[in-house]
Design goal:
alpha+beta; 4 strands
């Protein structure tokens, strides 16, 4: 007598083995997906910081925003808040120490400190 197909027990064993394999792989997949999303957010935050620094470079120092001002920005469909802090650097009127914090949902994703000097 020839049998075609699987018995119910064989099918249940195959499903159980598949479930065990997926249970081991799924947490790794979720972890890598979360890591990828975090990386995308950080990359966007760096781009936002570069964009804000470029905007500041276009302004004369007298027209810069107040220190501790927050600028909203959107990059890649995501909303960010950029905290801009600056102060004179080493008593020079043409130089500012600039500190930017880029955040999303109250989580700081990127920070940068630099010195900006306006050339005359």
């Amino acid at each position: 007598m020839s049998r075609n197909g699987f018995t119910l027990v064989e099918a249940l064993i195959a499903v159980a083995i598949l479930g065990i394999i997926l249970a081991g792989i799924l947490p790794s997949f979720i972890s890598y997906a979360r890591l990828n999303t975090d990386s995308e957010f950080r990359t966007s935050a760096v781009a936002v910081a570069q964009e804000v620094m470029e905007d500041l470079r276009q302004l004369e120092l007298a027209r810069w925003p107040e220190t501790e001002e927050v600028w909203p920005r959107n990059m890649g469909g995501r909303d960010f808040e950029v905290l801009i802090e600056h102060e004179p650097w080493e008593d020079r009127s043409s130089a500012r120490e600039v500190h930017l914090q880029v955040a999303h949902d109250d989580r700081i994703l990127y920070e940068v400190k630099t010195v900006y000097t306006q050339l005359n």
